[in-house]
Design a protein that fits this description.
With 134 residues, the chain is α+β, with helices and mostly antiparallel strands. Helix content is 37%, strand content 34%.
Length: 134
């Protein structure tokens, strides 16, 4: 797999979530994702950016345009240094929330992605990586 382009964006406040959505959509169009896949990756990115701000206390997202043979993809890595997630399996369960949301963010992002990876340690933050392929 080859990385052909990268960009890192701050994710600290609500306006950063809007910026992430805009940049992810532009990249998705540029690599040739169809409208349905564009919508899926933008929706997943929005959920993860929002979680980064609300639960992680802010962080970053790294966008990577990747290729694997003739396939092109968009990989997003969200990183925060917040309180972390004590029980990842529970956090991925629809309806579970530690806040006021519906508890669909992480599980929804996983369903909207072709690849999903999460690492978290209480007290040390969370990293979520998603990929959508053409």
């Amino acid at each position: 797999m080859a990385v052909t382009r990268t960009e890192k964006l701050p994710v600290h406040v609500a306006s950063d979530v809007v910026r992430v959505r805009q940049v992810v959509r532009a990249w998705a169009v540029q690599i040739g994702l169809n409208l349905v896949d564009q919508t899926k990756i933008v929706t997943a990115a929005s959920e993860l950016a929002r979680n980064t701000v609300i639960y992680g206390g802010g962080g970053t997202v790294e966008l990577e345009s990747i290729t694997n043979g003739s396939r092109r993809g968009l990989r997003l890595t969200f990183l925060d240094y917040g309180p972390g997630i004590a029980d990842i399996d529970r956090a991925l369960t629809d309806g579970f929330t530690t806040g006021t949301g519906l508890g669909l963010g992480l599980g929804g992002a996983r369903r909207l992605s072709n690849e999903f990876e999460i690492r978290s340690q209480p007290g040390a933050g969370t990293t979520v990586r998603i990929t959508r392929w053409t």
